[in-house]
Specification:
The chain is of the alpha+beta class. The protein has one domain. It is about 35% helix and about 20% strand. It has three helices and four strands, in the order E-E-E-H-H-E-H. The protein has a two-stranded antiparallel ribbon with strand order 1-2. The longest helix has 13 residues. About 15% of the residues are buried. The mean pLDDT is about 90.
């Protein structure tokens, strides 16, 4: 995966938008499914997860943290 500098960080050129995990377009994933998907995203080389507190609130951030 191509990387880019974002300040001091090096992040993947492609990010993963987490909105669909818990907000926007149902059906939503279970907590276990969300965590599994985030692990698959990270394993693919993507390390930029785009979340916002309005999705839940904070449920995407909590899943990403696990």
């Amino acid at each position: 995966m191509e990387k880019r500098k974002l300040g001091e960080l090096e992040v993947s050129a492609i990010g993963f938008g987490c909105m669909g995990l818990t907000h926007g377009y149902p059906p939503f994933l279970t907590d276990e499914e969300s965590i599994k998907l985030i692990h698959e995203v990270l394993d693919s080389g993507c390390n930029l997860l785009d979340t916002a507190e309005i999705y839940g609130p904070y449920t995407d951030e909590e899943a990403a943290g696990r």
